[in-house]
Specification:
368 residues, 35% strand, mainly beta, elongated, 4 helices, 4-stranded antiparallel sheet, binds calcium ion
């Protein structure tokens, strides 16, 4: 589907291709009336626009891939529905997996599915990104929002271990990476949508998957949600920063600490602060090492879109920064709202045995 979708950036003229698991093309369709017009109309599921595509095909057990693309490589928001139209056949749609490029707004990845009655079914929904290591621009941190047929939110999951670690492991299909998402829910008959979003509005290639784990009587079990993500964009608004002042490299208070570092270390972008890192030495087992300390917000204020990387160099010209030789030695937490923890990293080389040694903290924002 394309032209009939209720979004501005819709795919004007979709084409649908169906491949089997060997990668052979089973069938292709541009406009659904081109062939099988009467048969498709008889299912009651014909697309509402002539430029949209449909295939009616009987498939044996196996894995199949449907590819949706635009005529002449046009792009836009599209939708693939897979509908089992023969309720009498013993076949069943077991698992649906959709891959697409995700960005903010309309360009989220939606996995829609329908549970046909009379029984509830237990389902596993997965949001995959970082384990697609063979894709250069896979999404860094996926999250899932499950909605019911009216669009009302049922549960949000950021990382699969957040609330249902045991259930997801018991499904035998835990995601390969900690940042990936999974929801195990038991749902009554009806239509549902799993929405895959990049955390804090980040984009990339992602996969949303729905697995049928079996019938479940008339149960309806929705798991608890993950905590909502803490994002740089919200932090900017809280501090009244907009325009050029809101750039990650902006420094509206002129204290030399750029906004991204103010955010990552829990400082105030509108008040001149002491330096974000403190250097010193730590003594362990009678040996002394160069050390660096910084603070970072904890709990619900812990940033979800920051990568902290402590690095060491033995030369600045040319610079040879490397993240390998340092390690965390202490964490101390100041409790309460706005809680900060102090992180100390140290060199692994005895202090004074190299002519020059430098430590620094690098913070990287993972979302725009
Ligand atoms: Ca995540
Ligand atoms: Ca600043
Ligand atoms: Ca400041």
């Amino acid at each position: 589907l394309g032209g009939s979708l209720p979004v501005a950036n819709r795919l004007a003229d979709p084409v649908l291709e169906l491949y089997d698991e060997t990668g052979s093309l089973v069938r292709i369709n541009n406009n659904w009336r081109d062939s099988q017009r009467a048969e498709i109309a008889a299912t009651g599921h014909a697309p509402s626009q002539d430029t949209e595509s449909a295939l009616l095909v009987a498939l044996g057990p196996g894995r199949y891939t449907a590819v949706l693309l635009g005529v002449d490589n046009t792009v836009g928001v599209g939708k693939i529905d897979v509908i089992d139209v023969d309720a009498t056949a013993a076949s069943r749609l077991d698992n649906v997996s959709s891959r697409a490029r995700v960005s903010a707004g309309e360009n989220v990845l939606l996995g829609g599915f329908v549970i046909n009655g009379p029984q509830s079914r237990k389902v596993l929904i997965r949001g995959i990104g970082p384990s697609l290591f063979y894709i250069a621009d896979a999404i860094y941190d996926p999250s899932l929002q499950l909605r019911d047929g009216s669009g009302a939110p049922l549960v949000f999951n950021d990382n699969w271990r957040d609330t249902q670690e045991t259930e997801v492991i018991d499904s035998a299909l835990p995601p390969g990476e900690e940042r990936e998402s999974a929801i195990v829910a038991t749902l009554r008959p009806g239509s549902y949508t799993a929405e895959l979003l990049g955390l804090c509005g980040a984009g990339g290639v992602a996969l949303v998957e729905v697995y049928d784990l079996g019938p479940a009587g008339d149960a309806h079990l929705i798991p608890p949600s993950s905590a909502l993500p803490r994002c740089f964009s919200a932090w900017l608004s809280e501090h009244g920063l907009a325009g050029a002042q809101a750039a990650p490299t902006g420094d509206p208070d002129g204290d030399g600490i750029l906004n991204a570092l103010e955010y990552a270390t829990g400082k105030n972008p509108n008040v001149s602060d002491a330096p974000a890192t403190q250097h010193g030495t730590v003594v362990l087992n009678g040996r002394r090492f160069l050390s660096l300390s910084y603070t970072r917000p904890t709990g619900t204020n812990a940033p979800d879109d920051v990568i902290y990387s402590a690095q060491r160099a033995t030369s600045l010209a040319p610079a040879n920064w490397s993240s390998a030789p340092t390690q965390v030695t202490t964490h101390s937490v100041t409790p309460g709202p706005g809680a900060l923890e102090t992180v100390t990293v140290r060199s692994t080389t005895d202090f004074g045995t190299v002519r020059r040694e430098f430590l620094r903290l690098q913070v990287t924002l993972t979302a725009p």
